[in-house]
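Checklist before submission:
- one chain only
- standard amino acids only
- sequence pasted in full

Submission:
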Amino acid sequence: MDLDVFVTAHRAEWDRLDQLLLRGRRLTGAEADELVALYQRTATHLSLIQSTAPDPALTARLTQLVARARATVTGARRATWHDAARFLTAGFPAAVYRSRRWWIPTAILSTLLAAVIGWWIGAHPEIQSAIAAPDELRRMTRPGGEYETYYSSHPAASFAAQVWTNNARAAAMCLVLGAFLCLPVVWILFVNVLNLGVGIGLMSSAGRLDIFLGLILPHGLLELTAVFVAAGTGLRLGWTLIDPGPFSRRTAMAQQGRAALGMAIGLALVLFVSGLIEGFVTPSGLPTWARIAIGVAAEAAFLCYVYILGGRAVRAGETGDVDAADRSAELPVAA
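Returned file contents:
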């Protein structure tokens, strides 16, 4: 495409659109219709220039012009409580449900790997001695040791806030860093699995695995599920960069990225609940069976939330993405 000829042919339309935008709301009905038509035409021009003859200065001008026109045509929209309710009852559970083919295998493989690491450490004293000195291992695993006092070492409220912050940061990193070809997500997930496996191995070697599980399961079921969902979504985002499917790579990454951003907010709420359990239930004086029952109930509630509300929303057409009116127009893609 000859860019100079194209600009000469359409500059008058762009200038006219700019004039109409400067007039704001002082438009007649015919002028409003003209603005909409020019907006659609200019958006098409921008797509053609971006795909065939990208010119930075012209692209910047038309991008700004299209953005201003879009804001005028669609109007500014403020988030409402209805949007928040829709996100919690449809958008977030639908996004988690749609990514289940990624986070469920992630959860299964991670759990198996943690069990294998725990068995390997528990069955090999030489590995335990490489982790720490015998006296230090005894301080960690003995009754009243570091593994037990960890959950009651700080006031419950501050401990819950600290745990929530750390876990939310890890989940957000999984979601964001997935765009880097999955590798950072795999590393973050491995570190979490390794820490869990070490705890299983050391406490099992001391004959106190039941105590360890009684401490980790109340909050760990929901917490690890949230981490697995974040990791699975991050892996899906990274794979989208490799294989965007029927969409352009830019469009596919934008779709998955918007869904991942929404999931980061939703998972922060899930991890907040997990942090409350870890801060108030795990170190409480409740019997072990009662603490584990609370953890199982929280996990079951989350899974029902995802599979019932999320499945219903997906069947109704929900994708977890923002509304069509709030996202950029997508360029056509050849079949």
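Reviewer check: Residues 99 and 233 are 6 Å apart (CA to CA).
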